[in-house]
Batch of 2 targets.
Target 1
Amino acid sequence: MKRYIKPIAAIIWKDTLLELRTKDTVVAVLVFSLLVVVVFSFAVDPTPQIVALTAPGVLWISFVFGGILGMSRSFSSEAENSSISTLLIAPIGRDAIFFGKMLSSLLFMLLVEILVFPIFAALFNFPLLVIEMVPILVLSTVAVVTVGTVFSSMSINTKAREVLLPVLFFPIALPAIIAAVEITGAVLQGSGLLGVADWLPLLAAFDLIFLVVCPVAFSFVVQD
Amino acid sequence: MTQLDKGPAIDIRGLNKAYGRRVALRNLDLQVQWGTILAVLGPNGSGKTTLIRVLATLAKPDKGNVWIAGSELGSGDSFIRRMIGVVTHDSLLYDELSGLENLQLAAKLFVLDNADRKIELVSDQMGIQKRLYQRVGTLSHGWKKRISIARALLHDPYILLLDEPENGLDQQALSSLDQIIKDDSKALRSVVMTTHNLERGISLADEVVILSNGRVVYKSSTESVPDTAVLREAYFQYRD
């Protein structure tokens, strides 16, 4: 177990160190997500009905597109000097590399979400702290980074990386994104998690399935 | 080494590898015995780098079988990666990390005990102590190459796979590299080294092979090669 966990921790340590040096991912994602939220808050007529309809979508557009941007940048650094090969020649399974990269992205995305959500809530007149949002953010973000990590690694050697990644990512991640929007809408309107009994298991099932499928897919993607 | 010294260090049979329609290796057979230094020569595009990438588990063979330290490629890759140290054209280092951090990362990935001591040891060997705290991105190609070699040595591998390792190295670093390749204390260590430098190939290696169009077209022990002129003749004879 130690031989499995330690390399995963090493990849997270390396990505965190790189992020502290470059601030490439978090700053880019944060600025992008904030811009989307602020622009939409001015674009939408702030009546309670319209806000209830549009706000969850706005929130997840900002998180998901920001997340794609972040994951793409994270794998760009792996392409320089072929440094991803440092991970590939280590005596660890490809799945350990996958989980290392995925958990790093999860960490950075959750950090951005923690920073962006209060601003979103203030702009759209929602309570600043909605405790039910915690499991939704975690489950949905796991879905986004799990699928995103595979497709980011797939697009590592392509010139049209920024275009290819969303094109590959969205058709697969769509059920999770729709579930995230529906659950967020219900929770922000005060229905609580019980009001979204159908969507929450769907999101959890999506996570479970892709947490099994994606590490396997990743091991094929990163091999020449 | 009881388990390891039963067969050859590297045993390649019928290896084929293509990238799209470009065939890089064609039905390649090659054995490297324990403790042997093999120099792989050949013109650009002859398949040297692909051979190293396959042996390093970075590229999957299309056809054929490869055994490294008795373990077949594709079934025991984690064991194989523990046995090999790899130096490629690219430094495989993270530019934004210091040399020390890059070595620490490698130590963590290999789950090495006494990592600090081992980092100190390989840093001494490659003379990189002065540059250890500098970000790799600010270093010259030669210093990056030194750190890259140190990284490959960190887990004290039984097999070294070196793809044109002399590129960018100054005379002092070359001398350190030669000492590592010819290290008498590592009697069972095997080295596969690609190079364009025929003189170095002959002086360092026990055996030389020339690749052309992905095939082994010449193989000889260096003892039976009287001088570089013979090797040069063979090299140009089989060039595209």
Target 2
Amino acid sequence: MKLLKQLTPSRNLVKQTLRSHAWIGLVLAAVLYLVCLSGSLLVFKSDFERWEQSSSEPYLSISDQAISRALAAFQTKVNRPVEALYFVYPSKDLPRAHVADALDEWWVDKDGALTAPVDIPWTDMLTDLHYYLHLPGTWGMIIVGMLGAMMCGLMVSGLLSHPNLFKDAFKLRLGSNRQLEQTDVHNRLSVWSLPFFFVISLTGGYIGLFGISMTLVDYFEEDYQAEQIISEVFGHDPSVDQPAVVPQINKIHRDLNNRAPDAQPLYLVVQNPGTDQQYIEVAAYPPDRLIYSEIYRYHSDGSFIDYQHLADGSAGRQVAYSSYRLHFGTFGGPITQWLYLVLGLAMTVITVTGVNMWFEKRNVRNRWYTSWRGFVWLTPLALVASAFGTVLLDWSAVGIFWLVLAGGSLLLWAGMYRIHRFNQQTLYLWMKQAALLLLIVLLFAHGFGHTDQPWYWSFSLALTGLLSLPMINFRRLIPNP
Amino acid sequence: MTSWQVEIWSIGGLLLMIWCWFKAQQSSTGGRQLFRVMYVLLSLLLLALSHRLWSMVSGPEFSVLYVLFHISWVAWLLIASRATIKYKTYREKQTTEVKADYSRRHKCLVFLLAAPIALITAVCLAVWFSRLLVSELANQWVLTFILVPLLWGCLAVWFAAERRLIRPAVFSLMVIPLSMLLL
């Protein structure tokens, strides 16, 4: 007990950390909300790609000849020098292969023929929202990385500003007092999922700030350039100098099968195709590991060069290469995906309730609170509207998203506050209903021509269920004593 | 046991573990120390068992994450089942104005300190820490990259919490030039 008392932060410290928690949270709330919501959805990125663009019949395996045909067909199609040529194998998440370089990307059918260019503007919009907030590349990445860092800070300040952490661990008071309700939801969700938030924030900060940290570390390291640091951490490229021949995919696969029989190939890269420096890399995922993959390198004739030691190299290399799977939940199959979705949505709710608490504590009902709550409910509507406009009408996904979100929030900020008699709850309900209605229309309009028929409807049902959640009054599900 | 059975048993173990923790917390009042210790020990045992079960089918890396992540929703279910609800309407006098805590100048200074200055300080501190704690070069760099967001977040919290901004400013102004000289 004495130890617990000693560990309890002083009243002054609680006050100070609470203030900084509120400041940082309020300043970043809107962007945090967008990043958390888009991140939760992106756990199912492959499914969104599959849902958005219909292609050939789904398949889970492809022959070596078909891969060779696809690589040759792609080079003929683009007809320009290529630095690295990627072939992504079909998988359970995305049961169709695709071939790509830095500029073009094509779906491939089971026989290795190119079927259609990859065209998934809505999924790209969602990805860019999470990675860059639709800002120019490097700046967007730095700002999203900064959010990861600030979330680490919010966690620390949240813990310090909560002296009754253990005492209140099981309290949830819903109903009459809105401030109390928001506080309890905010605290219970955040305290019990702290390990998840810590992992997500830290890996997010690490991924987003890698570039800027690299630049600054490079400054302190007189003997090393940035490229040397990267190759020291992630492994060196092999030096190859022999005449290029057509890659012997069957020999490569045979060797990989003997070397790592349990590993699941993810993608194959022909590096520097057509030059004397040509070599092949196969990224294969070793089961039950968090690292993204091990990378095996081969000469074009199929003879083995080496592997990158991502699975058994230094601890730092393994940790660095595990961050992607940890952050995006691409391990452990569908149960982990659903778990990440639930916990990601909890993170979103924590952001919203945090801001609501601030307004409720001060009994403030002004245009800012109205537009904040409008922003929260406009975001799902903006996401659905942009999917509708992009998939059915071929409009710009980013344009529609921001038009609905920013335009709607501005309208609320400018006008709603003055309309006292207007019931704001009704307006928010309309937003939720409009999003659901638009989604149902989109799902039916898009669905009948889709090639993945049974899968399409089951995924659509899950999406509808997800968007119906905000309309459920969870208080009514809890028995009233 | 199949992986599904393991999943169900492990999650069941976590549910029981949280229930034991809850009971331990309830036993903290009224001098029932023995029960409290018993429940705490039992909850730790159940936690270890769940981890062991997951570890058998999914390996040590995944099992740690599964235990840590699944605790959340299992605990929320228990909390929701015990939630109290009041349906009385609660009305308070409401306002449209919020009194500002600090001047705009102070807020701009906090922003300057918590954003770029704290980032540079965080990188310097991360390099210091990793050089002190780790000998291998590649591991040092990875530790630096991982520490940067964590330290930046903590420094930002400190800078935003301080009423006297001179303290974090002096701290940063000492760390940055010292790092440039010594590292």
